[in-house]
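[Q] Does anyone have a clean structure-token version of this?
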Amino acid sequence: MGYVFGTSACTMSSTAKPAFVPGVWGPYYSAMVPGLWLNEGGQSVAGAAIAHLLAFHPAASEAAQLAANDELSLPDWLVTQATAARSKLSETIELAGQVLVVPEFLGNRSPHADPDSKAILAGLGLEQDLNSLIALYIAGVSGLGYGLRQIIETQRDNGVVTDTIVISGGAGQSRLVRQLLADSTGVPVAVPGTEEPVLLGAAMLAAVASETFADLRIAMAKMSSLGEVLKPVSGPLAELHQARFELFEALQKAARDHRGIAK
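[A] Here you go.
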């Protein structure tokens, strides 16, 4: 699966045979790779959801100033604080405590195709310090991961199996973010072997157009490679993510049920 993680997020999965997945667009024949079927899902806001989430917190202004002093963006500064607090990237989920976020500020595009869903924040206390802001950030990123897991599992149930997530986009540059996504989905997350995968894709098309390679599949095999691959955590932390994912789905269902009652 290709996961383009920016202001919003897009999932792109190719299969040899068409697969119809509820809440996921497609399948489209030869839309991305000639001869293959494309299924496209996504999250209406992703990086923008995290920015919006952090803006709610009373300590956001203080943290933004500290980040500016270190010449970092606010999310990058929060990453440095979270990684300093734990010896391993996967352990940072413990910083979230009881805070859990369903970051659907602009509805759910996939897999529920529910434009009326809204974000849910659970487990908040009266804390207003920087540590509680870090907790909110970790919970927000892992919440995006649980939404991505729903897409992956729905696709799997309909014949599209994902064994690796290949991430691109500005919001996925952090190793901590990638590890949290791997842990929350249970699927390895890899980065392309190039810093500019979009430009590499354009170069592949040019290579085929100039007849350097006979077709796009050959160009892809010859010109691309994977960089670092982060594997999902196992043991008690995996069990913690499973419990958080079940609560994530329960909160979604409760909100949908409430809307049904309200109608």
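[Q] Thanks! Anything notable?
[A] The radius of gyration is 19 Å.
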